[in-house]
Amino acid sequence: MPSSHTLVFMVIFSLGSLAAVLQNGLMVTLLGREWLRCGTLPAGDMIVACLVTSRLCLHGISILNNFVNFFDFCYKAKTLGILWDFINTLTLWLTAWLSVFYCAKISTFSHPVFLWLKWRITRSVPRLLLSSLFFSGLSGISSVVGNAVGIETAASQGSHGNCTLSHSILIFRQWYFFWHSVVMWFTPLLLFLVPIVLLIFSLHRHVQQMRDCMSGPRDPSTQAHTMALKSLSFFFVFHVLHVLTLLISMMQLITVWNPWHWAFEMVLYAGLFLHSIVLMRSSPKLRKVLRMRF
After folding, report:
1. For a pLDDT cut of 70, what percent of the chain falls above it?
2. How many Å apart are CA 27 and CA 30, to the nearest integer?
3. Which are the contacts of 205, defined by CB distance < 8 A and separation ≥ 6?
4. Do 147 and 169 meet the contact criterion of CB atoms below 8 Å apart?
5. pLDDT tens per residue across span 56-90
6. CA–CA separation, 186 and 107 (whole Å)
7. How far is CA 204 from CA 7, 112, 169, 199, 293, in A?
8. Which of 17-21, 31-35, 259-263 has the lowest mean pLDDT?
9. What does the alpha-carbon distance between residue 289 and residue 294 come to, in Å, rounded to a whole number?
10. Is the dihedral of CA 168, 166, 178, 259 positive or negative?
11. Measuring CA to CA, which residue among 279, 281, 264 is closest to residue 53?
12. d(Cα 10, Cα 50) in Å, to the nearest integer?
């Protein structure tokens, strides 16, 4: 029987994940209807629509994956783990492209590279979305290979009864998935961080210019940029925590029967839930639809 602390964290995680499923489901429905009604969406909202769709799937799979692992359905756990890996990678890449898009559209740099990116980014969005699927597919294949090697090695160990080999399997699995996480998850994280840092510098410089021009703190442009900086700071903190928590989960340093596993899961998906609220507030199309319908 799980401890009382484990049960409390499990209940909070489950309720939070169900709330996130409803929230992301609402966003998917609203953006999907607008996409069908208008035949298109603004490029930024197109990325947001794909991102909230991936998060809807992620929250659903996370609930299934955690409870399947908890009740020790080994075969189903492996299958769900591969899907979980694919959806997580897709979510990270879509988040990275969203930061690149915002940087290109909002930054005030006058360098030719930024001017070219600002002009080109809208038409490149469909290709960026396809590249996210491609990299996520590579992550899924890598996860399949790692699990297949681990299963074959475990079967071999079972037939020989070698405890040293069993320990070697555990070490192999941890290091294989550590490097898998570094390559598949830290690459989009770095891609996410560079535009965010550039955008923060750009917005800070713009705010300083507005103050030097005596526009005052209540200038609409200054207020808009200040709010953007606050949103990006929130965005930055939870995205980094997301990736670090994913790494701990992938390395299986804490078992599913440990209360801290459920505490980490609770924090991870609560961060995604809060970030989806920020996305809802920052999307002009979503704000417009919500005002019309509610």
Report:
1. 68
2. 5
3. 108
4. no
5. 888 888 888 777 777 765 555 567 778 888 888 89
6. 24
7. 45, 20, 50, 8, 36
8. 259-263
9. 8
10. negative
11. 279
12. 28
Q: Return d(Cα 239, Cα 188) in angstroms, integer.
A: 11
pLDDT, averaged across the chain = 75
* Residue that the structure tokens 């961060």 belong to: 271
Region for 83 from its dihedrals, namely left if φ exceeds 0, alpha if ψ lies in -120 to 50, beta otherwise: alpha
Rounded Cα distance, 255 and 258, in Å: 5
Retrieve residue 240's tokens.
């980094």
Q: Calculate the alpha carbon distances from 82 to 40, 114, 134, 288 in Å.
A: 32, 37, 15, 37
Tokens in use for 26?
A: 């609402």
pTM exceeds 0.90, yes or no: no
CB 236 within 8 A of CB 198: no
How far is Cα 166 from Cα 193, in angstroms, rounded to an integer? 39
pLDDT (tens digit per residue) in 245-285 = 767 666 666 666 777 777 777 777 777 787 777 777 766 66
